[in-house]
Amino acid sequence: MKVLIIGSGGREHAIAWKLSKSPKVTKLYCAPGNAGIGQIAECVPISAMEFDKLADFAQENGIDLTVVGMDDPLVGGIVDVFEARGLRVFGPRKNAAILEGSKAFSKDLMKKYGIPTAAYENFHSPEDAIEYLKTAKMPIVLKADGLALGKGVLICNTREEAMEGVKTLMLDKQFGAAGDTIVVEEFMTGREVSVLTFVDGNTYRVMTSAQDHKRAKDGDQGLNTGGMGTFSPSPFYTKEVDAYCREHIYQPTVDAMRSEGRTFQGIIFFGLMLTKEGPKVLEYNARFGDPETQVVLPRMKNDIVDLFEACIDQTLDKIDLQFEDNAAVCVVLASDGYPVHYEKGLPISGLEAFDGKDDYFVFHAGTKKQGDTFVTNGGRVLGVTATGKDLKEARSKAYQATEWISFDNKYMRHDIGKAIDEA
């Protein structure tokens, strides 16, 4: 099989790595890719949002399967464009990707079908939102309705912060049109857990649990980011939690989308909050998480091609999805100043230390090549992942491996997976 991956981050590098392990894959392409992906796939200089050019490439090069890693092209309808040309593509169609593309839609869906989530209101005008906030209980959460690179969520502890948040999202347009509508949501407390699932429209298969660390600084301080590190599995995602989520969240979501005429085929990422009242949905994503993918896929036993094809062909009920009885931790190496201002083009050394080591991985997020040298090309530069017999061993190994890599302004959190010690 010839396979095309669409995207350019650490998630896509992890997907490319997993696909490269499949005996069915003879040739891998990635558009646009990055320097790390370029070591195992042929990078194609077409942007993820140039749907017709990508479809042309797939047709001209006899691509057997296209895997869409990113949210923007999915929400924009890339799957519909490919399907209209008779091309096999993995990911939800536009009318199903709205599950991530509009937080207001997903909240309304959960309310209609009784799927547990935080109480909320949707607002289309800043005046109405501000009026509501005058009497709302604090703290409170404001969310931009549309896509905002994982950063469009504001947790407001005071009424003044909430009013300022409305201004940031709806008037200053910090996230552009994503803030035309906002969701104002009750603040939930508890442990966060990420659960990725393969979905074929009827059946779902749960991947192993993970936990992301969104804030830029240690102790969950600083600005929201795309994710500074992850661990898998979550010790807080127990058999009881899993059973509850299967009955009240996972299958009901798949069934609700089908009932709405928006049959979902691809990945549903369930962002969960384990509250005192039970698990509730924080958010849905319509694709693999980043950096959750970097800890989930190294633990997956199956050939991932089988999963992609089963979702497309609606034969997921025939798949027994299995994971290693181990653990993984990913620590993101970023450029200091991320997620606001940071330098690019800084030389990276030490990557060769990962060669030939089965339980250590380095997934490139923001890198490119200048001659023979890898240089930084983004805020999140690399994801250093290690597996171990348990979370403590994986964490120790991951942090050890971060020391193998050097570049100016290298920055990371030092408490990824610290929650493990409290479990």
From TrEMBL:
Its EC number is 6.3.4.13. Residues 107-316 form the ATP-grasp domain. One of its GO terms (molecular function) is metal ion binding. One of its GO terms (biological process) is 'de novo' IMP biosynthetic process. It is an enzyme of class 6 (ligase). Gene3D superfamilies: 3.40.50.20, ATP-grasp fold, A domain (3.30.1490.20), ATP-grasp fold, B domain (3.30.470.20), Phosphoribosylglycinamide synthetase, C-terminal domain (3.90.600.10). The keyword Transport does not apply. Keywords: ATP-binding, Ligase, Manganese, Metal-binding, Nucleotide-binding, Purine biosynthesis. Pathway: Purine metabolism; IMP biosynthesis via de novo pathway; N(1)-(5-phospho-D-ribosyl)glycinamide from 5-phospho-alpha-D-ribose 1-diphosphate: step 2/2. It holds the Pfam family GARS_A. InterPro entries: ATP-grasp, ATP_grasp_subdomain_1, PreATP-grasp_dom_sf, PRibGlycinamid_synth_ATP-grasp, PRibGlycinamide_synth, PRibGlycinamide_synth_C-dom, PRibGlycinamide_synth_C_sf, PRibGlycinamide_synth_CS. It catalyses: 5-phospho-beta-D-ribosylamine + glycine + ATP = N(1)-(5-phospho-beta-D-ribosyl)glycinamide + ADP + phosphate + H(+). Its cofactor is Mn(2+); Mg(2+). Belongs to the GARS family. NCBIfam families: purD. This is Phosphoribosylamine--glycine ligase. The lineage of its organism: Bacteria, Bacillati, Bacillota, Clostridia, Lachnospirales.
